[in-house]
Amino acid sequence: MWAYIIRRILATIPVMAIVALFVFSLLYLSPGDPAAVIAGDQATPDDVERIRASLGLDRPYLVRFGAWTWDILRGDLGTSIFTNLPVSTMIQQRIEPTLSLMIVTLILAVTIAIPMGVVAAWKQGTTIDRCVMAFAVLGFSVPVFVVGYVLAYVFALELDWLPVQGYTPISNGFFPWMENLILPAVALGGVYIALIARITRASMLEVLSQDYVRTARAKGAAQPSILFVHALKNAAVPIVTIIGIGFAGLIGGAVVTESVFAIPGLGRLTVDAILRRDYPVIQGVILLFSFAYVLVNLLVDLSYTLFDPRIRY
Amino acid sequence: MIQRRGVLAATAVGVAAPSVVGAQGGAQRLLRVIPQANLTSLDPVWTTAVVTRNNAFMVFDQICAQDSKGEIRPQMAEGWSLADDRLSLTFTLREGLVFHDGQKVTSRDVVASIKRWSRRDPFMQVLQPSVAEVEAMDDRRFRFRLHRPVPLLLQALGQTQFPCFVMPERIASTDAFTQIREAVGSGPFRFLANEWNPGQRAVWAKHDGYVPRQEPVDGLAGGRTPRIERVEWTIITDPATSANAMTLGEQDYWEYPLHDLLPVMRRSRDLVVEQRLLDGTYGIARFNTLQPPFNNPAIRRAVAMAVNQRDYMTAVAGSDPQGWGVCEGVFTCGTPLANEAGSEILKTHNVERARAALREAGYNNEKVVLIAPSDYPQINALSLVTADLLQRIGMNLELVSADWGTLIQRRASKEPVERGGWSIVHTTASGQSLTMPVFHLFLRANGANAWFGWPDDAEIERLRTAWVNSDSPEEGRTIAEQLNRRAMEVMAYIPLGYYWQPSAWRRNLTGVFRTPATVFWNIGKS
């Protein structure tokens, strides 16, 4: 097991190297010039050139890539072209809101979707099943920003129950923190609730038709015990896989949700950096996201051993 | 109805009662602002971003500043005196000026700041050949020694477009092309660097050592009295969220509300929606004069014949005529040089005549590439109106939608459209920036050194120099008319009218005044 974990961690190194090369090259080739953004409309071409030189953007591709890679190897993600702040500081400032949003969304999605999927499978073909599936279709179909605006209108503007924007750090208290996260998490969670509920239902239907479930019923096991102890554990592998895959989608969804609810997270940092062509920030954030994605996949793979003793690494 | 404070906050009070009470008391002393953009840089010399300039108005002070009529008044300066031969201009600083780090402001700081700013300000660069030296005489006095009289020097020093802000000498000695790392000034508010989270918020605290002028506030002149303990900018990129935050009282001031949302906000009894900025924003359609078909002035003029500024302004600012205006000349309407000499072509407003003029001009169906910035709603709207117009007059149009970052790189290309070039781009400019030929960017016609599009016209350049050297306002106005006439012949750009950008604030704000830039002194909260 430990050898497997170490092998997987080592395997992230070439993955991260390829991501780094790809991101750097893509940004190098993409149109846009931060020096022109900084200089503004009144600047002469000479001014723009001098700013470009002062930022080191006039150096050849290989020199820039080499310098950046060397910095990364030393743990330095670079400095933002615009704010002059270290990229690591900017990420540090933004990571808490995004992590909070993702964690609350995942908890919300899992706690709602799994029971929904289990009940839908149990009551297959009934009104309950059809309602759950209708909700799932709705969750897939309505874009996150539309859900966000509707929630903001109802619960913030009309009812004044929750704030419409912003983020309060958890250090300021659990309730103020949660107050700002409820609407964004519900907006972002809709699609994951739908996704996880559907997968849970499908996986449970397969398991519920197995012989050992029939045996459990014949022995007089209670229905909740059959569903949540015997069946769900055996249906868990595809569910956990889809939660892991959903993590990537959560990163994309967070960008939109953070904009709608003005949450100062990594998603907005990325969008702002892309629009301004703040290369060090874009590169730093994408590297971080890639690493997080690789890590989540590793955790998902490891979690399989908990649900299925036949799986051994 | 259950209110928010009755749901979660009630629980929270039990947990954190002291902080809630503190926050309620602090709300009266805190001004919460949604700025027009994210504050990414603190250096108003390094970048020309308006949001950086607005930050600079809080942190730094000016030697002199513009009042609501556009006159230049003393600010840090107690006054100034011009020698009889007009070859020396001496300034004396007010007493009691201190930087946020506690150091006294001296004339050495001012001289270093002027020198750094002069290297980047286009206005000052025009005047620079006439300036022999700027030098500190003692702690409170400094002077400009001149080769020849420079009547526009005060205008340059007190301008709002690219203001000359005073920094400590140790900061101002930074190269003008390198970004400063500290925002330490002597202005009415201190920048709290440790609370700055670019993209989320920026915070200022009242500068207790600030000594405002005794005159009442008047534009950017007069007493810059801070009446609030703390100003907090929160970056909200989504306009609908900003509008909701204003309506709910989560924010106090929104600098640039989207025009589409103004009617909704005006319906709220808690909000004031008014024009606070003194200048309108002007729309510009710029031709690439180096490449076909717009290297032919007759084709540029043919397009101008089809333009109706009302269509453009309605697309940008809506159908309420109070929100925009027509200005069919190159200088800002309502300012001393505004005129419409030779502007008849812009009053044609006729697609059929434009189509005929296009044929007469020899248009041969060359491809026209128009780049529209999808992430700038106003400029995008201007671009789309032009795109429609070009198609209606029969031009072979390719409309390219790009983000602003891509657009500003592509507009620097002088290549033909087949090799990544462009034919027409749009932008906006503040009314301030179009009031005088000396800094009127779009009027310049000095070829490769002109703004993108690179028009080359010796007559415009001659008239511009003549205006800078003119001796009297009357002579200046005559030259301005000649300039407008010539600009209409060259037609390097088409003026598209102007729109007003209102601001919105909570009704409990006091002391909000009209000004050429968004500033927060004199504003209190009841």
TrEMBL record, chain A:
<feature type="transmembrane region" description="Helical">
    <location>
        <begin position="281"/>
        <end position="307"/>
    </location>
</feature>
<dbReference type="InterPro" id="IPR035906">
    <property type="entry name" value="MetI-like_sf"/>
</dbReference>
<feature type="domain" description="ABC transmembrane type-1">
    <location>
        <begin position="95"/>
        <end position="300"/>
    </location>
</feature>
<feature type="transmembrane region" description="Helical">
    <location>
        <begin position="177"/>
        <end position="197"/>
    </location>
</feature>
<keyword id="KW-1003">Cell membrane</keyword>
<feature type="transmembrane region" description="Helical">
    <location>
        <begin position="134"/>
        <end position="157"/>
    </location>
</feature>
<dbReference type="InterPro" id="IPR000515">
    <property type="entry name" value="MetI-like"/>
</dbReference>
<protein>
    <submittedName>
        <fullName>ABC transporter permease</fullName>
    </submittedName>
</protein>
<dbReference type="Pfam" id="PF00528">
    <property type="entry name" value="BPD_transp_1"/>
</dbReference>
<comment type="similarity">
    <text>Belongs to the binding-protein-dependent transport system permease family.</text>
</comment>
<keyword id="KW-1133">Transmembrane helix</keyword>
<dbReference type="Pfam" id="PF19300">
    <property type="entry name" value="BPD_transp_1_N"/>
</dbReference>
<feature type="transmembrane region" description="Helical">
    <location>
        <begin position="235"/>
        <end position="261"/>
    </location>
</feature>
<keyword id="KW-0812">Transmembrane</keyword>
<feature type="transmembrane region" description="Helical">
    <location>
        <begin position="99"/>
        <end position="122"/>
    </location>
</feature>
<keyword id="KW-0813">Transport</keyword>
<feature type="transmembrane region" description="Helical">
    <location>
        <begin position="9"/>
        <end position="29"/>
    </location>
</feature>
<keyword id="KW-0472">Membrane</keyword>
<dbReference type="InterPro" id="IPR045621">
    <property type="entry name" value="BPD_transp_1_N"/>
</dbReference>
Automatic annotation (TrEMBL), chain B:
<dbReference type="Pfam" id="PF00496">
    <property type="entry name" value="SBP_bac_5"/>
</dbReference>
<feature type="domain" description="Solute-binding protein family 5">
    <location>
        <begin position="71"/>
        <end position="423"/>
    </location>
</feature>
<protein>
    <submittedName>
        <fullName>ABC transporter substrate-binding protein</fullName>
    </submittedName>
</protein>
<comment type="similarity">
    <text>Belongs to the bacterial solute-binding protein 5 family.</text>
</comment>
<dbReference type="InterPro" id="IPR039424">
    <property type="entry name" value="SBP_5"/>
</dbReference>
<dbReference type="InterPro" id="IPR000914">
    <property type="entry name" value="SBP_5_dom"/>
</dbReference>
<dbReference type="InterPro" id="IPR030678">
    <property type="entry name" value="Peptide/Ni-bd"/>
</dbReference>
<keyword id="KW-0732">Signal</keyword>
